[in-house]
Amino acid sequence: MIHLLNKTPSIANQFIAELRHIDMQNDRMRFRKNMERLGEIFAYEISRKMEYLEEDVLTPLGMARVPLIQELPVLTTILRAGLPLHQGLLNYFDRSDCAYISAYRKTSKSNEFEIKMEYFSTPDLSGRIVIVSDPMLATGSSMVLVCKELLARFDIKELHIVSVIASALGVEHVRANLPKAQLWLGAVDEELTSKAYIVPGLGDAGDLCFGEKI
User: What is the C-alpha to C-alpha distance for residues 161 and 182, in angstroms, rounded to an integer?
Assistant: First the structure.
């Protein structure tokens, strides 16, 4: 199942527009903040699909009956670009366990690339709801590799994937390889360049958040 934020009029579209805007991208702090805000919106939208049970909450004047979430998800992000988006999710699921994965694309002179994974730090994900966040879903190769590794290690109950901008090709690749995953996306762009950049996209999210890497 695919959930698209930009198909419904909301403030999320304003944040996505600012992330894309070439002039606003000069404000690195605002770029990170907008990523974080979208993480919060995704968290709210995902929370609407979760299970709740009414419980009694003691107030200074009596007892209130409130539906409370029954199972918090494990928040997983792909370093480094995913950190602000992850923080937004964590702001709302603020008692969740977290997992961190290092995965990056290594490109050759011929523009061919392979995905490298070097670092995993996760709790036990068996029987858990897992949300994996990465701001850009270009080819989908990194996301598929990471999620397949997690699924091979753990018997995950539910898998949710969160990205701000995706390519149509990346979405197709993820759906073909992770058919049970639910995708939560800000927008889907049709074009992908030979260097696997989404067009119009927004550029390199990691560099825009934290500075250019060597």
Answer: 6
